[in-house]
């Protein structure tokens, strides 16, 4: 890939395709018809990119060339990058290191049986007072007390009922 000052270069783009062949293997396929293996160069740059270049003579002092760079994944083992040229296709295999598994979440708290829920509910209802085991009776009792309080408040405001608070 030497350059001559009188040479004319025509830059072109190449078609590429990424394929995940296995969990730990990615393949970059570059379609480059008209090139030979000797006209291609594959390298890893100091910036951590994969650079693919090619240059071939078209006629006289006219050359066709391309250059393309791809970022290498951070979990790729750069020492195991392999390139193989077959006909019109360059296949570059990148071995991907398996990513460390995230830590398993803590085990959920042990499940509480239905019987334990019933027992807790009974204790709660019983703890509210009056020892009522039937929730409907408890709700009715609450509504009756609320009604009495509201009726007393209303009657007091209308002046129908006088309440003298002792000690005030």
The name of the CATH architecture of the largest domain is Sandwich
**Structural classification:** alpha+beta
User: In total, how many beta strands?
Assistant: 8
- Strand order of the main beta sheet, please? 1-6-5-4
Count of separate DSSP helical elements: 2
Distance between the termini: 106 Å
What share of residues is helical? Answer: 10-25%
Number of domains: 2
Most strands sheet: 4 strands, mixed
Beta fraction of the residues? Answer: 25-35%
Q: CATH topology of the largest domain, which one?
A: Immunoglobulin-like
Radius of gyration: 41 Å
The SSE string, one letter per element, is EEEEEEEEHH
Average pLDDT over all residues: 82
In short:
This protein has 168 residues and is α+β, with helices and mostly antiparallel strands. The chain contains 2 helices and 8 strands. It folds into 2 domains: 8-95, Immunoglobulin-like (Sandwich); 114-158.
What can you see in these coordinates?
The chain has 168 residues and is α+β, with helices and mostly antiparallel strands. The protein contains two helices and eight strands; from the N terminus they run E-E-E-E-E-E-E-E-H-H. It has two domains: 88 residues, Immunoglobulin-like (Sandwich); 45 residues. The strands form two sheets. Strands 1-6-5-4 form a four-stranded mixed β-sheet, with no helix packed on it. A four-stranded antiparallel β-sheet has the order 2-3-8-7, with no helix packed on it. The longest helix has 24 residues. It is rod-shaped, with a radius of gyration of 41 Å. The mean pLDDT is 82.
């Amino acid at each position: 890939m030497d350059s001559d000052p009188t040479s004319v270069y025509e830059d072109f783009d190449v078609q590429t395709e990424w394929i995940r062949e296995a969990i730990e293997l990615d393949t970059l396929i570059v379609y480059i018809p008209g090139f030979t293996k000797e006209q291609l160069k594959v390298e890893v740059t100091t910036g951590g990119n994969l650079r693919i270049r090619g240059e071939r003579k078209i006629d006289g002092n006219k050359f066709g060339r391309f250059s393309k760079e791809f970022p290498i994944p951070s979990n790729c083992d750069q020492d195991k990058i392999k390139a193989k040229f077959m006909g019109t296709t360059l296949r570059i295999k990148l071995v991907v290191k398996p990513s460390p598994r995230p830590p398993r979440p803590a085990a959920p708290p042990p499940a509480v049986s239905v019987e334990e829920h019933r027992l807790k509910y009974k204790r709660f209802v019983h703890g509210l007072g009056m020892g009522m085991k039937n929730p409907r009776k408890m709700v009715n009792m609450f509504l009756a007390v609320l009604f009495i309080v509201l009726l007393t408040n209303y009657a007091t405001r209308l002046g129908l009922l006088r309440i003298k608070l002792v000690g005030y």
